[in-house]
Amino acid sequence: MATSLTSHRPLLAISLKLSAIFLFVSMAAIVKATADLVPPGEAVFFRSFFAIPVIFAWLAMRGELSGGLRADKPLRHVWRGVLGTTAMGLTFTGLGLLPLPEVTAIGFATPIFTLILAAVLLGERIRMVRISAVLTGLVGVTIMLWPRLSGTGDLQEGAALGALLILIATIARAFVQVQIRVLVQSESTAAIVFYFSVIASVVSLMTLPFGWTVPPLWALLLLASTGLFGGIAQILVTAAYRYGPASMLAPYDYSSMIFAVIVGYVWFGELPTMVILAGATLVIAGNALVILRERQLGLDRRKARSVTDPKSS
Question: Which of 77, 78, 58 is nearest to 68 (CA)?
Fold first, then answer.
């Protein structure tokens, strides 16, 4: 599936990207709201399985079912799927233990860890600007995690475990992004998204013997909607990059913090602490350095960015 820019319509591109981000945040909120009713593996299944019909229908409408789902490197799809499912499961577990804005803020560190892993695994060169970005981002992550892991902050039960799980999930998503950078060289965006949903459904289904429940009907409907939201959001992200360049749209990823604060407060009565806001600011600053450097070097990551990791998801 092509993801190249077909026309420059910045307002439409931004609207599509913001709509997708809002759906991803809403999806995370639903997972958090149902965390006491279903285990993370079951939530991952609903998120993945119910996205498949949306993606399938979209490809059928575009007449891309045959070519769009061709997989030249199936083992890489499996590896990406297992990593992505692990990251999603850890994130869903963390959502049940931490405030939504905090989970969102820690997740901003994914590009920082991706930069490190790309240098180690893919041999990408990191020079002074990117080194500064990495260091700034890591300081921000440390600031956010320190109160939880040191026991000096909110002693809410499970908060330290939740912070650790979200950190591991963030690193796992960085591994996923590195895999995507390799996959996009031979695979279509449609294939990457579709086969992830299929693999995640199969992997999460393996957790069935470990305590799946039958939640109330309202919870079942909400959980099913996470897959629909995820599938629609993925389509919106892909469409956004048809109407605006990645360098223009990348900063709007951080609108998820605004949405998370609003949804977290309205739905759960949560507000981010000053420590979280300070740490998130540094992480965003580090990511901004990376974005500016990529603009300067003229690096085009539109296709890789269009395959948004379903962290929340």
Answer: 58
Structure tokens at 263: 């949804």
One-letter identity of residue 275: V
Q: What is the CA radius of gyration of the chain?
A: 18
d(CA 169, CA 215): 26
25-44, pLDDT tens digit by residue?
999 999 999 999 999 999 99
AA letter at 219: A
Residue position matching structure tokens 């990495």:
134
pLDDT tens sequence across 149-181:
877 655 566 888 999 999 999 999 999 988 888
Nearest to 99 by CA among 258, 260, 255, 229: 260
Q: Which of 302, 312, 264 is nearest to 107 (CA)?
A: 312
3-state secondary structure the chain: CCCCCCCCCHHHHHHHHHHHHHHHHHHHHHHHHCCCCCCHHHHHHHHHHCCHHHHHHHHHHHCCHHHHCCCCCHHHHHHHHHHHHHHHHHHHHHHCCCCHHHHHHHHCCHHHHHHHHHHHHCCCCCCHHHHHHHHHHHHHHHHHHHHHHHCCCCCCCCHHHHHHHHHHHHHHHHHHHHHHHHHCCCCCHHHHHHHHHHHHHHHHHCCHHHCCCCCCHHHHHHHHHHHHHHHHHHHHHHHHHHHCCHHHHHHHHHHHHHHHHHHHHHHHCCCCCHHHHHHHHHHHHHHHHHHHHHHHHCCCCHHHHHCCCCCCC
Distances 82 to 16, 55, 79, 161, 213 between C-alpha atoms, Å: 28, 19, 5, 22, 23
What is the rounded distance in angstroms from the CA atom of residue 79 to the CA atom of residue 159? 30
What mean pLDDT do residues 210-227 have? Answer: 95
Cβ neighbours around 209 below 10 Å, total = 7
